[in-house]
Design brief:
The complex is a heterodimer of chains A (about 110) and B (about 110).
Chain A lengths: L3 E4 L2 E5 L4 E7 L5 E7 L6 E6 L5 E4 L2 E5 L5 E6 L8 E8 L7 E2 L3 E6 L1
Parallel strand pairs in A: 2-11
Antiparallel strand pairs in A: 1-3, 3-8, 4-5, 4-9, 6-7, 7-8, 9-10, 9-11
Chain B lengths: L3 E4 L2 E4 L5 E7 L5 E8 L3 E10 L2 E4 L6 E7 L2 E6 L8 E8 L9 E2 L3 E5 L1
Parallel strand pairs in B: 2-11
Antiparallel strand pairs in B: 1-3, 3-8, 4-5, 4-9, 5-6, 7-8, 9-10, 9-11
Chain lengths: ~110, ~110
């Protein structure tokens, strides 16, 4: 079945630092979505990437889809305590109706 | 927030008993999903529905069944609950196929099987 790896699984940063997290697949993806889940909450959609090499920005968050459509990155600039949570990537392959989630990257921020 | 209601929100039950979780939506979205979330496993798809009476299996469907007799309701049933089914269960809905549409998640149902 579809496998997607998120690295790192945990990230602890100092407030104000930048960092990048990655989502990698061994197979070509149709699209990739990113979700954020606050502690005790439910996943909330952030962005969807569809095109090879696509880059989208949301304020301090920059999302990129790899040229080969096998990986994606999420870069956060000047991390804030409000960024705390777990970030998931979710992918589909081919014509599948199934959205498969990675195991998530848990972010903690030291104020 | 999307109009999704999960019930019950919390349940404690004993091994071997049947359990039904309900997901109710007011958005009239076609697609509905059940995921389970466990530490170290992220979100795993149990079953999904692409219309009334149209359902299909996900990654971890063993031990679970679903039914969708109305657009707004998607039921997840554990015929005979086991301790390995202790988890947080999330319902999600989508207006479009996952290639083009985002998922909206409910608040989750925490199930403990003793």
């Amino acid at each position: 079945g579809q496998q997607v790896m998120q690295i790192p699984q945990y990230q602890h940063v100092q407030e104000g630092e930048d960092f990048t997290t990655y989502c990698n697949s061994s197979t070509t993806l149709s699209n990739i979505q990113w979700y954020k889940q606050r502690p005790g909450g439910h996943p909330v959609f952030l962005i969807q990437l569809v095109k090879s090499g696509e880059v989208k920005k949301q304020k301090r968050l920059t999302f990129q889809f790899g040229e080969a459509k096998k990986n994606s990155s999420l870069h956060i600039t000047a991390t804030q305590t409000t960024d705390v949570g777990t970030y998931f990537c979710a992918v589909t392959q081919g014509g599948s109706e199934k959205l498969v989630f990675g195991k998530g990257m848990k972010l903690t921020v030291n104020p | 927030d999307a109009g999704i209601t999960q019930s019950p929100r919390h349940k404690v039950t004993e091994t071997g008993t049947p359990v039904t979780l309900r997901c109710h939506q007011t958005e009239n979205h076609r697609y509905m999903y059940w995921y389970r979330q466990d530490p170290g496993h992220g979100l795993r798809l149990i079953h999904y529905s692409y219309g009334v009476k149209d359902t299909d299996k996900g990654e971890v469907s063993d031990g679970y069944s679903v039914s969708r007799s109305k657009t707004e309701d998607f039921l997840l049933t554990l015929e005979s609950a086991t301790s390995s089914q202790t988890s947080v269960y999330f319902c999600a809905i989508s207006e479009w196929r996952v290639h083009t549409g985002e998922l909206f998640f409910g608040e989750g149902s925490r199930l403990t099987v003793l």
